[in-house]
Amino acid sequence: QVTLKESGPGILQPSQTLSLTCSFSGFSLSTSGICVSWIRQPSGKGLEWLATICWEDSKGYNPSLKNRLTISKDTSNNQAFLKITSVDTADTAIYYCARRPVITEGTFDYWGQGVMVTVSS
Amino acid sequence: DVVMTQTPPSLSVAIGQSVSISCKSSQSLVYSDGKTYLHWLLQSPGRSPKRLIYQVSNLGSGVPDRFSGTGSQKDFTLKISRVEAEDLGVYYCAQTTHFPLTFGSGTKLEIK
What tens digit of pLDDT does each residue of B64-109 get? Predict the structure, then answer.
């Protein structure tokens, strides 16, 4: 059974760095063709892809966030991470991690429950 | 970036009726491997998105066959036959052919 769960600080101040963790089970990020992505959703709005990391450690980032994103993984502990630097109120959103089997389906086949992040002074 | 345009933005349908949602991309979604990475997701109220259809027309595991997807290149359609109450929510198309990955703006389905 595949499950993912996000965790984060809940609330942080503008200019701080947001650190998110995706803890998963039922699959391994060392398995060929498996990637994990981060996607966010401001309240009442649509979905925005942020970043992806794959089994062979390739990474992809949304250029709209310029150089603020860093994605990484800990294969041994079944975790993926996302850091966003210099946050502001526009980064307030629900953050999801999702599995993406790129060789088979190509879509986001399993999602976490999401974690709410609020940026406020 | 590939822009995904979904229409209509919302619709209201009675139980048992059929409905179609359109998704048009600003570029062809055919990848160099010949596959088309256009997918459909459903976000039920208060829930995370859920995979419905991948690569245009393939039903995800456990998805009822009332859902079907068609299309090619830049023009795609999700059809729901015999709508049920559990189908309410926001439907998104998503493309994973080109970076950055992008989503449509969503179609909100309400039950009359």
Answer: 999 999 999 999 999 999 999 999 999 999 999 999 999 999 999 9
Higher pLDDT, A106 or A69: A69
- A50-67, pLDDT tens digit by residue? 999 999 999 999 999 979
| Interface residue B51 vs chain A (CB under 8 A) | yes
Residues from chain A that touch B100, judged by Cβ atoms under 8 A, are 49, 60-64
For residues B55 and A52, what is the distance between their CA atoms, to the nearest angstrom?
19
Query: What phi-psi label fits residue B88: left (phi over 0), alpha (psi between -120 and 50 degrees) or beta?
Result: beta
3-state SS class at A119: strand
pLDDT digits 0-9 by tens, A28-58:
999 999 999 999 999 999 999 999 999 999 9
Q: Which of B64, B90, B88, B107 is nearest to B13 (CA)?
A: B88
**Pairs of CB atoms within 8 A across A/B:** 67
- pLDDT tens digits for range B50-75: 999 999 999 999 999 999 999 999 99
Q: Residues of A with CB below 8 A from B94's CB? A: 47, 107-108
User: What's at A110, amino acid-wise?
Assistant: Y
Strand-pairing partners, residue B77, are: B22, B70
Best residue of B6, B48, B102, B103 to probe chain A, by most A CBs closer than 10 Å: B48
Helix (H, G, I), strand (E, B), or coil: what is residue A75? Answer: helix
Block residue for tokens 């209201």 = B12
Mutate which of B10, B32, B101, B107 to test chain A, going by most A C-beta atoms within 10 A?
Answer: B101
